[in-house]
Amino acid sequence: MSNEQLEKLVDNALEFLLRAITEFESAPKFSIIDFYTAVELFLKARLLAEHWSLIVSKDPDADKFVSGDFVSVTFDEACTRLAKVLKSAIPDTARRNFDAVRRHRNKMVHFFHKDLSGTAMEDIAIEQLRAWHDLQRLLTQQWQQVFEQWAGQLRDVEKRLNRHREYLRAKFEALAPDLTALKESGVPIVVCRSCNFKAARSTELIKDLYEARCLVCGSAQSWLRFACPECDVEGRIEDGGEFRCESCKAVISESKLIDLLDENVVTPDNYFDNMLPANCGNCGGYHSAVLFKGKYLCIVCLDLSEELQSCEFCSEANTADMSESYLTGCDHCEGRLGWDKDD
């Protein structure tokens, strides 16, 4: 049942996504509505791939699910279940970008809007490109095993979004003098992965770890310079928790990267007090944060933190603020409130 339903759900999500792109100029209001519908359906598809009951908000019933007579999870419920049940949380940046599309969609559904044109269309293009960039990373990297059979359709979506990028060309051309001045002053400018314009200002956060923020669409991207352990050719770890060598085609998994990059030394004296690898407070990654250059780096999302804290309820180490965690828990427990609720 789940395989058949999964295929139907993903096909439906792709249909909404392609329709949103097609409607972008002719019916922008419906493009916004359809685009968010697609995002939500993909999140539910990931839950469905684990078990059908995860997309039912409450009182799951198999017969009602098959007949479509059920209330599905909300956006927030889906995000919570992805983090706490599947241990595959949506990174904070992606969740904010998806939520921006959701809120825009709600305005379109519930309130009157005048015709959308000019800078409004540019804003919609930026909003959708950011959300697509984050969604694409989830589908092709973090959740690749679930969605790999739709890789061809996802590449087609990427090509079709070129019309969105054309709406940003005027902004890119207006920024040309500023970009030239930055390059002449020695600031590296790289290609943005969201809008594809060479307009992202690159900064080295610490040795080998870089962040680039686009001056056109505002998107951010991170990468870590890394020498392939198989052939010693330098490449990049980009947010996604995996390294693929362009030279020898070796694929280094998240668990292997943790072993290679963690600078923490465990001895008999600190074995029981060791907190690493820790959970990431940004993306919810389970035991994905390691000691790197004196800071804590998440291998999955490349978030960099200054300190670790322990969850006051389950004692799991985390790079997030755990000051209220006894009652509410962390990404990997529900805290005392959840414990009492289960009783």
In brief, what are we looking at here?
This protein has 343 residues and is an alpha+beta fold.
What does this structure look like?
The protein has 343 residues and is an alpha+beta fold. It has three domains: 2-164, Nucleotidyltransferases  domain 2 (Four Helix Bundle (Hemerythrin (Met), subunit A)), CATH 1.20.120.330; 168-218, no CATH class; 255-343, no CATH class. It contains 14 helices and twelve strands. A five-stranded antiparallel beta sheet has the order 1-2-3-4-5. The chain has a three-stranded antiparallel beta sheet with strand order 8-9-10, with no helix packed on it. The protein is globular. The two termini are 32 Å apart. The mean pLDDT is 89.
| Beta strand % | 5-15%
Structural class: alpha+beta
Distance between the termini: 32 Å
What's the SSE pattern?
A: HHHHHHHHHHHEEEEEEEHEEEEEHH
CATH architecture descriptor text of the largest domain:
Up-down Bundle
> Rg, please?
22 Å
By DSSP (H or I, 4+ residues per run), the number of helices equals: 14
CATH class of the largest domain: Mainly Alpha
Strands, count: 12
Uncertain parts: none
Strand order of the largest sheet: 1-2-3-4-5
Search tags:
343 residues; alpha+beta; Four Helix Bundle (Hemerythrin (Met), subunit A); 3 domains; five-stranded antiparallel beta sheet; three-stranded antiparallel beta sheet; 14 helices
